[in-house]
Amino acid sequence: MCYDNDARPPDLPAAGGAAHGQDLVLTSADGTQFAAYTARPEQPGGAQIVILPDVRGLHGFYKALALRFAEAGVEAIALDYFGRTAGLTARDDSFEFMPHVQKLTVPTVFQDVQAAIAHLHSSAPESQSIFTVGFCLGGSLSLLTGTQEFGQRGTIAFYAGLSRQMAGSDKTVLELSTNEKHPVLGLFGGADQGIPVEQVHTLDQNLDTAGVEHEVVIYEGAPHSFFDRKAVDFAEASTNAWERILNFISSYK
User: Fold this and answer.
1) With b meaning 16 or more CB within 10 Å and e meaning fewer, what string describes 55-92?
2) What range(s) does the Dienelactone hydrolase domain occupy (predicted)?
3) What is the tally of helices (H) and strands (E) in the chain?
4) Would you call 40 exposed, middle or buried from its count of C-beta atoms within 10 A (0-12, 13-18, 19+)?
5) What secondary structure letter does DSSP report for 105?
6) CA separation for the pair 28, 90 (Å, rounded)
7) Are 116 and 50 in contact (CB under 8 A)?
8) Is 121 helix (H, G, I), strand (E, B) or coil?
9) 30 three-state secondary structure
């Protein structure tokens, strides 16, 4: 598990503007309804982002994260993965997520991402640049989404599981990273026991092979899930990660 119920994203490195969030239900191309949460800035900055959660799906951390993005001027939508198998039930501590994670497939996640992107397009009076950001499982899915042409401008991944091979895919995330089509920002903890640093270096090399602009950052001593307001020992890394994310979006929007 990546984030627990008490986890919350770190504050922005600078004061943000007003933002408004709401729960909603989207419908994927196969007719599946799934939960999402959208946050809109009072002063849009020309970019939008799809948030791909960890294995628990759409829980409080990601709703709060959507609001932080909106406060920074980036309209955000966080989606839930489990509409096909768990319906629209809550993703609180009582939710047994792993049986549903095991039923995920890459093609259906892509359908949900496309539905989220379509919602972002429909919510803005003018075309804005789309990005994805994901955490743990969501980081892996963000990288996989970056191998597709969904109209996005860039891919951001926190502690993406690189050795993960999901149903509907014939290769690992690391192997498929040579197919990335968009700029990539990868953020990893140097003390993450589940993601060897050697794999992160290989990701960097694979992105060279893919020919996309990229930055892969390893925060020395930082564990998995370091990007958390409660992780005061890693507040400096979290602030730096925010700065890199916002600079990345500003550079490619």
Assistant:
1) bbbbbbbbbbbbbbbbbbbbbbbbbbbbbbebeeeebe
2) 34-252
3) 8, 8
4) buried
5) B
6) 19
7) yes
8) helix
9) coil
CB 222 within 8 A of CB 192: yes
- Hey, what amino acid is at 29? A
pTM: 0.98
Strand (E) or helix (H) holding 142:
helix 137-145
Domain ranges across the chain: 19-252
Q: Letter for the amino acid at 70?
A: A
- Rounded distance, CA 51 to CA 61, Å? 11
The pLDDT tens digits along the chain (253 residues) read: 689 888 999 999 988 899 999 999 999 999 999 999 999 999 899 999 999 999 999 999 999 999 999 999 999 999 999 999 999 999 998 999 999 999 999 999 999 999 999 999 998 877 899 999 999 999 999 999 999 999 999 999 999 999 999 999 999 999 999 999 999 999 999 999 999 999 999 999 999 999 999 999 999 999 999 999 999 999 999 999 999 999 999 999 9
Q: Could you tell me the strand order of the sheet in which 33-41 lies? A: 19-27, 33-41, 74-79, 47-52, 129-135, 152-158, 184-189, 214-219
In this structure, are strands 152-158 and 214-219 parallel, antiparallel, or unpaired? Answer: unpaired
The CATH superfamily holding the domain 19-252 is: Alpha/Beta hydrolase fold, catalytic domain (3.40.50.1820)
